[in-house]
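Example (one chain per record):
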Amino acid sequence: MNATLPPPAKMPLWADLSKSFSEDLTDYSPNSVLDAISAYEHEFGRARLIERLAELLHINRAQPGIAHREFCSLPFDIVCTTNFDFLLEKQYDLERQDNRTIHPVVDEDQLSINVDTAGTLLLKLHGDLRHPKRLVVTESDYDGFLTEYPLIATYLANQLITKTAVFVGYSLDDPDFRQIWHLVGNRLGKTRRMAYAVLVGARPGDIARFERRGVKIVNLPGTRERYGDVLAETFAELREYRREHAGPTLKPTEEKPLEQFLLPRDAMTRLCLFATPLDVLPFYRENIFPLAEAAGFVPVTAADVINLGDSVSAKIDTLIDRAAVMVVDASSAHTQFELGLAASRAQEVSTRSNRQPLRLIPVVTEFTQLSGSSITIQAIKRPTVLTEDSLFVSQLAEAFQALANEMGIAQNLEPRRLFEAKEYRAAVIAAMTLLEATLRQRLNKPVREAVQRPMSMRQLVSRALEDGILDISEQELLRWTKVRNEAVHSGKLISRNEAKVIVEGVEAIIDVQGGV
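Predicted structure:
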């Protein structure tokens, strides 16, 4: 119903299908939509039924609407649908910059095949119009569903047992689903997970019917005419709410990324997210991560972060949302998927938000790995066999330094901005990160030598004092570090005076070094 159609075409309601099929039958009065569809198949056969459904549902003309767009921007690993159309597949392809990210599952044998785990699994419970034998649309199809497709029924039941279900635009009236839902409820009783249904302008009778079946209603104000717009607004609000509050659901295993995740979402971070195939990740950790750190960035991978939930897509979405820079080695299908996510996110930020832009650095072994993608920035080519003296290592070092220079002024001003916003804990973290990055750059070694593990904060301070580039006592700097560490690890509140001393102290140091 929320698809975009060329006028004057309109998408039929479920009840409208009954009328359309009945008009093609002689002396026939349907008892229900299923009755009309079943009678039509009996009269004209399965092939003609599929053709008529495709015609009535405008399969070749319908395009995803705004509700599809906003829904597909939410990071679900699994989406189940009883629709026969291909609107979700179309929108997922558009959403991810033309990289293949949607995996429709129609037949049972697909459930056991994990060819590519990147993206969203779309379980089409009732099949679709490209699989006539698998389509569940007539009375006999519904009656035989549990017998004909026991694995799909079992898979769905498992999802309902272990996940919280949210129903959108769904009445719970399908006989096959009701049997599964009823079975789960009988087996689990009061321990069955809560389920929710999103409705627009629901009547009391609708709410009562859902709640009798163990489903809580999220009743959105609005009319049927604005149904799609209301859903789109809700999905967009939910997406932003999730991103705003997603930080605490991720627990980095290293201290430096943890500091960055503690910053408010609107703060400028120094996170440099790496997405690489597993076979080259050790090379990146050994040779490329130090280059990012030398430029003042904090490298992190998805593997370095523990997700308190179980959604891989949500984890990646949050990491991309918080990153300032993302390096994507697009030499595998999985990382090409992540490149598509990042490109989509970068475009979204530039057009819809005043948050920090995401700087993308694609790395490829062949430029064809970017084909079909809307990536317009320069990619760095690397050799298939990696060595420390590869040209792309120097090119990445130069790219990191160029980005550090580009972001330098804004990064220098960030502690003061956070302080004035009364985000004292974040201001201290940002100030100490700025100080560390500044010292690291002042004491930086040549590019080839920088591929060593960077010095710790204590080592940086000692070296800076030895070289005479700091006009402050080591004791005072270590006190600031202690305050920062307590803020990060114990959640200790930082007073305004403590934050003022540290922010102004770091600003003074940056001024001395010719910064702000």
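Caption: The two ends are 55 Å apart (CA to CA).
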